[in-house]
TrEMBL record:
It comes from Arion vulgaris. This is Uncharacterized protein. Keywords: Membrane, Transmembrane, Transmembrane helix. GO terms for cellular component: mitochondria-associated endoplasmic reticulum membrane contact site; mitochondrion. The gene is ORF45242. The chain crosses the membrane at residues 27-50.
Length: 115
């Protein structure tokens, strides 16, 4: 009733232990491979970014001249001739957009949007 000198219960325990050792070895190998892959990837990214940014030239900040702002004549005339009893016609939106454009006309985002 024994297989190769082992009783069946001990043979089953030995087989279970060998399978468990095999799985633990495989799991350890997977975890170590995952961690080493992560470290290698981070090192490669650091190397690439370091090379890219070390070669980039440092540019001085752009200088914009400060031009005086003024309202267009159409909006000035609307301001002078408007009264509070007239029906609202969104003139406030024109003034708001004119203000924002005059403040942001030298920004790169607005230049990209307009071109």
């Amino acid at each position: 009733d024994s297989l190769s000198g082992f009783p069946p219960a001990q043979y089953l325990l030995l087989l279970t232990r060998m399978c468990a050792d095999y799985l633990v070895d495989r799991m350890t190998l997977v975890i170590v491979s995952f961690l080493l892959g992560m470290l290698f990837l981070l090192a490669a990214e650091l190397f690439i970014f370091w090379r890219y940014f070390s070669k980039a030239a440092i540019l001085p900040p752009p200088k914009f001249e400060d031009t005086p702002t003024q309202l267009p004549e159409v909006l000035k005339s609307r301001l002078e001739h408007s009264s509070l009893k007239q029906k609202e016609d969104c003139i406030w939106l024109n003034f708001l957009l004119q203000f924002l454009f005059s403040e942001l006309r030298d920004s790169l985002q607005l230049r990209r949007f307009l071109t």
